[in-house]
Amino acid sequence: MTAPTGRRERKKAATRQKIADTALRLFLEHGYDAVGIRDVAAEADVAVTTLFSHFASKEALVFEQDENFEQRLTQAVTGRAPHEPLIPALRREIQALVRHCMADSAAPTWHLIDASPALREYEGSMRLRHAEALATAIAADPDLSRTTTACRAIARFAIDAFSLAREAADPQAAVDDIFRMIEAAWNATSPTPGAPGTVSSK
Asked: Rounded to an integer, what distance in angstroms lies between the CA atom of residue 9 and that of residue 5?
């Protein structure tokens, strides 16, 4: 009974990926503003309603990994080993995301984003949403014991680390530098010295 559901999910995922790949190709070839939703749907051979069932907006077509990135960030909190400190777990995930997004193959997409006010605005709202999801995951962990404000602040710092690292000459070194400051801020909010979630960076 599970096989049909599995096939449907695979078909949906394949359709979504085809739409996203088609959109990105058209945007890179012709410019983001020159390509409309109907152009993408026609080229991908899907109905406009099908496109919107997978992507809520034109901007979302460029950020098709949005949901996956958000899940990875929250899982860095919820999926870490028992009593594993929070900040190193977040640092590893941000480093992995930076490596993924700084690959040579991703450079044209970032040039596209940087050149479009609409895409930059969408990216900013996406980062805020990711930060709120991350803050919620941190606040829900009973081992971490921080105020809501502290959780939200650290989450925003972690999300901003990605953007700052992307602009740095050495992104990985930038992540390390930023997370040393993040860890100091996190430790400063600890209710007691050596509370769970703290560790020295190396």
From this structure: 6
- Residues 95/172, Cβ–Cβ less than 8 Å: yes
- The 3-state DSSP composition of the chain as helix, strand, coil percent (nearest 5) reads 75, 0, 25
How far is CA 131 from its chain centroid? Answer: 9
Confidence bin at 70 (pLDDT 50/70/90):
very high
| Nearest-angstrom CA–CA distance, 163 and 145 | 27
pLDDT in the model for residue 196: 45
**pTM, entire model:** 0.83
Kindly state the tokens that stand for 30.
């012709």
- Report CA torsion sign: 121, 122, 127, 129: positive
DSSP H stretches of helix in 31-62: 37-44, 48-54
- Tens-digit pLDDT profile for residues 85-121: 999 999 999 999 998 888 888 889 999 999 999 999 9
- The CA-to-CA distance between both ends of the chain, in Å, stands at 50
